[in-house]
Amino acid sequence: MDAVLSPTKETNMLLDTYLKALRLPTFLQNHRKFAEEAAQANHTFDRFLLALAEQEVVQRERNRIARCIKAARFPVLKELATFDFSCISSPNKQRVIELAQGNHIRKAEPILMVGNPGLGKTHVATGIALAACRQGCKVRFYNAAGLVNELIQAQDAHRLPKFLATTLRQHLIILDELGFIPFSSAGAQLIFQFCSALYERVAMVVTTNLRFADWTQVFGDEQLTAALLDRLTHRAHILEFVGESYRFRERMQWEAEQTDG
Q: Are 203 and 171 in contact (CB under 8 A)?
């Protein structure tokens, strides 16, 4: 009995060593279990190997998506499937779903989401970006104020060209909450330089609570603002969010529940 079992153990140990060397962790984790199941079901060797290979491919795809989502640095993960489109009159769900298919990314076209706070612009932008991660795209999420700080730090450290070069390797950039905080003259210039570098090379999704006519309030310079809008609106998909604030609705619902209680 020992003579029969010993080679099997040795074979398994050698197989484990080879699988580690070949970087096939899912094979390593599953080959014994799959072999037992194949033997019990009287499956052919080809079918056993196919099952292992399929599992390896599936796991690698899951890992790739997880890495992409982590690299994007989303503040919160929000899926399009959980967004309540019935609470806004615009944009309609079908248009958002079409954009989530990613054609705008391949064409390096911007999406501009405009509307009052609390209407779900960040939720929808994140949902579109998550869909892009699953399609194999490199994505990076920035809060507008945070991006300005990073750009200033990069400039002060003489790393701005490297920062922009890294950004150009992305497929989709999310620029969230543009307009909540006015920029300094230096910050406005850097945001303009950032967006100009991406123009027609990297797709963007920009969320803002300001009408385009009011962007000068944030950038301070009319000519710079006009030049930036000229680039961002060229070939852009403009989504105007119209409805009642989600946070306001939640507050009203909470107050109603407290009253009923």
A: yes
Q: What is the pLDDT of residues 105-147, one digit of tens each?
A: 999 999 999 999 999 999 999 999 999 999 999 999 999 999 9
The two structure tokens encoding residue 217: 């309030």
Residues 112, 208 contacting (CB under 8 angstroms) = yes
Residue 189 to residue 225: CA distance in whole angstroms: 10
Tokens of 33: 């279990």
pLDDT in tens, 71-87: 999 999 999 999 999 98
DSSP-based three-state secondary structure for 88: strand
- Cα gap 197→46, rounded to integer Å: 51
Longest dimension (CA), the chain: 87
Which backbone phi and psi does 172 adopt, to 5 degrees?
-145, 130
Does the predicted model carry a pTM greater than 0.85? no
Q: Amino acid identity, residue 98?
A: E
Beta carbons of 205 and 128 less than 8 angstroms apart: yes
Question: Which amino acid, 94?
Answer: Q
Instruction: Measure Cα distances from 20 to 13, 16, 25, 34 in Å.
Output: 11, 6, 7, 18
